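quick q for whoever's on today - can somebody do inverse folding on this one?? i tried earlier but teh output was garbage lol. tokens:
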């Protein structure tokens, strides 16, 4: 069998922290992309459970990084080899043909984009939330991490990667990227976990995210917003 060292067209970059209970199932869902030639880079932010050990057989690279989703995704981007980077949250599942859809978009001149999203929870209000998220993204050109952002490597590097913020890093990256081009808003849906909504309540989560986003646009320090969200920077 001929061995090739050609870089993959697509690298999936997955930041994780203490995901032992779900990481095997999540990585099983991306194995078809590996079979078709994509690279999977898992970036562990210092898990204190068995996340890394469980994930290792199912990825092409497993690297360690300081905690923080933006920091981890930048580390994964640097370690990856693909021409196109796809940033995938550990609780989000891609549509079966995601790799081909992304390649088609790039072949048609797209430099970055995202998918529509569905929230994996039965509450009827979440159907409205999904539609609003997807509509708002089309209108504003801003993508969220739950929508599986993809971007050509050269474009990602040209904007300096993710701003290393403890929260709102996806909005900050989108703002940089849309100065170059509007995103491709693919209508095929990723499925993201509804655990945040179920744990904290749908209305409470909706209002919290609205307040955080509004505060960010008003110039509030993202570190303060992260604390409001429940994440304390630097604490594992």
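ok took a stab at it. sequence:
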């Amino acid at each position: 069998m001929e061995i090739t060292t050609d870089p993959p067209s697509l690298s999936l970059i997955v930041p994780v922290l203490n995901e032992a209970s779900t990481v095997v199932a999540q990585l099983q869902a991306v194995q078809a992309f590996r079979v078709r030639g994509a690279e999977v880079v898992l970036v562990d932010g210092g898990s204190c459970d068995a996340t890394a050990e469980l994930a290792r057989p199912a990825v092409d690279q497993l690297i360690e990084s300081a905690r923080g989703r933006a920091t981890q995704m930048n580390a994964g981007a640097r370690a990856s080899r693909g021409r196109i980077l796809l940033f995938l949250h550990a609780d989000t599942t891609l549509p079966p043909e995601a790799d081909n859809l992304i390649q088609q978009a790039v072949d048609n001149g797209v430099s970055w984009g995202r998918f529509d999203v569905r929230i994996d929870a039965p509450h009827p209000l979440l159907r409205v939330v999904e539609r609003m998220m997807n509509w708002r993204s089309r209108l504003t050109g801003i993508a969220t991490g739950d929508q599986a952002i993809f971007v050509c490597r050269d474009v990602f590097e040209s904007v300096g990667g993710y701003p290393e913020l403890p929260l709102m890093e996806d909005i900050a990256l989108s703002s940089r990227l849309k100065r170059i081009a509007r995103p491709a808003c693919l209508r095929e849906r990723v499925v993201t976990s509804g655990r945040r909504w179920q744990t904290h309540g749908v209305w409470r989560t909706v209002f919290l995210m609205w307040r955080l986003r509004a505060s960010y646009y008003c110039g509030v320090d993202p570190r303060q917003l992260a604390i409001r969200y429940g994440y304390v920077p630097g604490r594992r």
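fwiw The first strand starts at residue 10 and ends at 16. also DSSP finds eleven helices and eight strands in the chain. so keep that in mind when u check it
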